[in-house]
Amino acid sequence: MRLLRDHDNSQRLGRALHLADVDAGLHAVLQVRAGRTGDRALALVDAGDLGLSVQTDDAEFHADRDVRLVVAGLLREISLTKDPAFGRW
Q1: Residue 9 and residue 7: Cα distance in Å, rounded?
Q2: In a domain? residue 8
Q3: Total domains present in the chain
Q4: Phi-psi region of 6 (alpha: psi -120 to 50; beta: other; left: phi over 0)
Q5: Integer CA distances (angstroms), 36 to 14, 51, 67, 69, in order
Q6: Domain, as residue range, for 65
Q7: Confidence of residue 69 (pLDDT cuts 50, 70, 90)
Q8: How does pLDDT run across 34-61, given as a tens digit for each residue?
Q9: Residue 71 within a domain
Q10: DSSP secondary structure, the chain, as one string
Q11: Within-domain flag for 89
Q12: Could you tell me if residue 36 is inside a domain?
């Protein structure tokens, strides 16, 4: 599974090493590529400027107050983005 910047296939940051469906949601272990671009992305995550978003096909959603939960779908990619679907750390 690819890890991209802003859902842009030309900006590959790394990949998922492990994905698991757990009670709390999707658990992902991600590997960021070594080098300046990867270091910059990690610094932006650490500063709270980037968060996670995913691209799915055939997604089913469930509304829970102000949160839209993906309850089923085909995961296509994971991105770090300024406007994350799933908040910031």
Answers
A1: 6
A2: yes
A3: 1
A4: left
A5: 13, 19, 34, 34
A6: 2-80
A7: confident
A8: 999 999 999 999 999 999 888 888 878 7
A9: yes
A10: -EEEETTEEEEEEEEEEEEEEETTEEEEEEEEPSSHHHHHHHHHHHTTS-EEEEEEEEEEEEEETTEEEEEEEEEEEEEEESS-TT---
A11: no
A12: yes
